[in-house]
Fold this sequence. Notes:
Residues 66-165, 173-319, 369-475 form the Plastocyanin-like domain. By secondary structure, the protein is mostly beta strands. It has 3 domains: 5-32 and 349-477, Cupredoxins -  blue copper proteins (Immunoglobulin-like), CATH 2.60.40.420; 46-162, Immunoglobulin-like, CATH 2.60.40.420; 172-340, Immunoglobulin-like (Sandwich). It is 7% helix and 38% strand. The chain has 4 helices and 30 strands. The strands form 6 sheets. The chain has a 6-stranded mixed β-sheet, with no helix packed on it. A 6-stranded mixed β-sheet has the order 21-20-23-28-25-26. The chain has a 5-stranded mixed β-sheet with strand order 11-19-18-13-16, with no helix packed on it. The longest helix has 14 residues, at 5-18. The protein starts with a helix and ends with a strand. Residues 1-28 and 203-207 have low confidence and may be disordered. The structure holds CU-O-CU linkage and copper (II) ion. Copper (II) ion binds next to loops. CU-O-CU linkage (C2O) is lined by residues 102, 104, 144, 146, 283, 415, 417, 458, 460, 462.
Amino acid sequence: PGLSRREFLGIAGMAAGALALGGCGPFSGGGRDLPGSPQARRTGETREHLLRAAPLEFEAGGQRLLTWGYEGDVPGPEIRLKEGDTLRVRLRNELPEETTIHWHGLPVPNAMDGVPGVTQRPISPGEEFVYEFVVPVAGTYIYHSHVGLQLDRGLYGALIVEPAKENLDYDREYVLVLDDWLDGAGGTPEDALRRLRDSGGMMGGGMGGATLEYPLYLVNGRPPEDPATFEVRRGERVRLRLVNPSAETVFRFAAGGHRLTVTHADGQPVEPVTVDALRIGMGERYDVVFEADNPGVHQLTAAPEGKEGLARALLRYRESAASSPPPADLLPKELRGKLLTYADLKDARERSFPEDTLLGGPDRVYRLTLSGGHGSYAWAIDGQLYPDADLLEVREGEWVRFELQNHSMMVHPMHLHGHFFQLRNDTGRGPFKDTALVEPHMGHLAFDFVADNPGEWFFHCHNAYHLETGMARVVSYG
Ligand code: C2O
Ligand code: CU
């Protein structure tokens, strides 16, 4: 394939920088035009929120559940603002433990990133902390606690950043927050970790493949018996923002009676691709649109992969007010149809990483294995358990590549803080994401990013239990 005009200009502009490749020049990215994190223009608007993290009671599946959450609700309140706005959140810790908030997916300044012991001192019970930053880029994100297993309680919510100018055409939007739930219904997250450890990693999937069965799966805090209902009108274009802050569950999502056109992966635009169903890993987000052209009442299903049970919501056409919903155990046939893969996703941002052959390749490559089990429940990156682990050093301006190889029997949603990365896949223009699944049994994944946000950044598995046992590293700007 020939070069587009833009690619050609890009290469010409990079010739000088390419000479510095492989060396340890002081700022080897200088002069190169790499696709770093987008920066929005400041709007000057400030959005203020108070988030009280506190114990709360909520009802799901006919049980009263005692848990921890924000502002008395699960999920926490949706935060919605425009790119370029300033977000100011006062976090008040009314929990019996330390806590923090992480703005999952957003490349915020390092001190605002919410990682205890890495970017800030955790906030003690009774204390407050103010997070404040300019929101740099539109998309669908998550905010959540980054302390211990608190994510597997109710300490999460959706963070929606609208673009300065919307260029997606839709009439109506809903946000679906998917979760696996055990807190108060099957002990606490700490009990769950004890069970995993006692099993020596033998629970569920066998050696090293220990997995948690959850008593409940929720959409927007609602169990399948009492689902959230989303109304649409015939003829509308409907946008769904899907977010998965669950601790331990990959969901397969499908909308009964409709195909889904995927428009964004982890908040970043991709070339629209139409599928029947998609997998959404822990920490991932997808935006989809569909035409409301099939009146009735349909099920929006999130089936937990490899586990019993179901999360669901309902899609109800105004025109079909009287129809009754499909039974909860009837899975839409779309779940068995064409499933989105990373190879189907093509970046639709302005700039991608250029072909290595033309540029000489990245400045720095880390090849890392993912492993676990070995008779005890612990998960490692390249054989090391955080915090007893080497830094992954980078320098500002570098083009960095991570190549990950999964030597274990479980899938690992690997998440990088502070940066978007571009998946290297067959399309040559993989999507920009911040979280990506590395498949079990020698699954392989490679991605590139520009080191353009100095600081100490967490890189870890977004399975909360894997993270808790050590599956993390710090990417450090030397
Ligand atoms: Cu959403 Cu380090 O996490
Ligand atoms: Cu993992």
